[in-house]
TrEMBL record:
<dbReference type="InterPro" id="IPR012334">
    <property type="entry name" value="Pectin_lyas_fold"/>
</dbReference>
<dbReference type="Pfam" id="PF13229">
    <property type="entry name" value="Beta_helix"/>
</dbReference>
<feature type="coiled-coil region">
    <location>
        <begin position="23"/>
        <end position="57"/>
    </location>
</feature>
<keyword id="KW-0175">Coiled coil</keyword>
<dbReference type="InterPro" id="IPR006626">
    <property type="entry name" value="PbH1"/>
</dbReference>
<dbReference type="InterPro" id="IPR011050">
    <property type="entry name" value="Pectin_lyase_fold/virulence"/>
</dbReference>
<feature type="domain" description="Right handed beta helix">
    <location>
        <begin position="151"/>
        <end position="276"/>
    </location>
</feature>
<protein>
    <submittedName>
        <fullName>Nitrous oxidase accessory protein NosD</fullName>
    </submittedName>
</protein>
<dbReference type="InterPro" id="IPR039448">
    <property type="entry name" value="Beta_helix"/>
</dbReference>
Amino acid sequence: MKNVCFFGLVIMVMASCTDLSQNDNLLQEKDQIELAKPELEIDFSNLELKMKFYEQKNQERLANATHLKKGCDSNVKVPLDFSSIQEAVDNVCDGGHVMVSSGEYYEEIYINKPGVKIKAIGDVVLIGGFILNEYADETTIQNFKIKLHGAINGIFSYKADKLRISQNEIEDFPFYNNYGILLGNTNESIIHKNKIIRTGNGITLMTDDNYEGISQKNDISFNYVNSYFISGISFIGNLDENSIKNNTVSLHAFYRERFFGGGIALISRVNSNHFISSDNNQIKNNNISDGTIGLLITDFNSGNEVTGNEISNNFMYGIYSLSLDEGANPNIFKNNTVRDNFSCDIVDVSGINIYLKNTADCTIGI
């Protein structure tokens, strides 16, 4: 992570074909390309305030609760022991197991204890979502089908580390500020083999808009994200040394003028005239297609390795990389296949990124 003085962020730049033709060195293999710098409509709402809202709701719920036991149970079954998942979570011990049998459950589940392993056994449909606070380290959520009902996120966590979120199907969170999975300030978490369909954003890791929040050493792998509105998989803020590998991201479902995202996106944040950036991440062996921009790296994200990705059939660009500050480590793009993207396959504004053995028909700035 680095903080870079912010002298002016131009979010939308339109350059005509005539403007581009003035610099023949920037054009390769295409005579006329209309180059648009994407404008991002990302929800930068404060994560701490979001969690405080959920904490207040939970306190109000517990004030009227009648299901709480004096002790706790290491293993709890739903609906055998408790009729709801929330009641089971309230009564399970730290590090305990909650096993949920087939059925539909209408609830938003608040988790505020560590190590709880919540697994769906059979066909379990949760109409709602999960909320994990800072005490919910090492929580496991596995094998649920999660659908929208009041909740704005399928799974939302703030300051919980070492999470295991796997083999869930999350769908129908269809507005721009909805997230299939939103993790704030998380470290060493694994998001693995989830299927996320028809959401505003698929999988997002985000940090606070200050310099204290950080997310490191997270693993996002073998997920399937389809029909997203803004970004399929995104890092927003101070995220270093994470990996995004072997994911499939396709079909950017919503498009209008000046409303762009990325299949996979690294997005810097601005605070007090400084950038907070994501550095030294690995983006490897992903398949990204049928979006607006396949891979988007915004200003001042550096030292990232992008290797072995298949990026195709995107409405604007396959890869779009913006500026870096002087002295930054370059991003490295190697062995990527970037083909059949409508405006151009690879566009680089940085001037210092490194490109090795990539396959592309149209490139600008490299």
